Amino acid sequence: MNKLVIFFLNITIFALFFFVEPSSNYAQQGVSCWKNIFQSTPDTTQVVSQITPLDSCTNIHTTIIEKIDSINDTHEIGVLEKRIGMGHVQVYMDSIIMSINAKTLEEVKHLKGYRVQIHFGDLESAREVRAKCRRQLAGKKVYLESIAPNYIVSVGNYRDRWEAEFELGILKKRYPNAVIVPTDIETPRL
Question: Are 117 and 162 in a shared domain?
């Protein structure tokens, strides 16, 4: 329990030193910050804020890390690095939290949506149709699913019926028995 408290204390101190402006002049000036949003002329006054020296922040941060490291623990604190734009962020977190994060990223999330079913039959004919469809429709996802004792071949991941209807019009030319089926679809990559 102490490890968890120290971990959250570390995050809190980190947030206080790096995300909170050390000297806010609004309270002393009697000016509300929301009034500045609606100003018609740009504010040309300079606001000088005092920045806490990096050494004092580093000392506190290092002390907390040393306390965490000094505790005998079977878990190691991992580093999650992310590069966005020009900056560099390192998040120190317990290995348990990192494993939970990895598990949630691995889980395949499904949505309710539609696919266009182009074939229903035995396994051999379904495999032939799927191979032919993959060659003809490069870039489209083609699925082979089992509905015992038969198999279906379906195309696409459509979030709404309108998208599926549009694709159905195109696929009906090659596969006259194509129909739209509601099913769970893969989440689209954003």
Answer: yes
Q: Is 41 part of any domain? A: no
Looking at residue 146, which CATH number applies to its domain?
Answer: 3.30.70.1070
Of 84, 107, 130, which residue constitutes the final position of a domain?
107
Considering its fold, how many domains does the chain have in total?
3
The answer for residues whose C-beta is within 8 angstroms of residue 2's C-beta and 6 or more apart is 71
Per-residue pLDDT of the chain (190 residues), as tens digits, is: 566 656 766 666 655 555 545 444 444 455 555 555 555 554 444 444 444 444 444 444 444 444 444 555 555 555 555 555 666 777 777 888 878 877 777 776 778 999 999 999 999 999 999 999 999 988 889 999 999 899 999 999 999 999 999 999 999 999 999 999 999 998 877 6
Tell me if 42 is assigned to some domain.
no
Question: CA 160 to CA 163: how far, in whole Å?
Answer: 6
**14 phi/psi in degrees, rounded to 5:** -60, -45
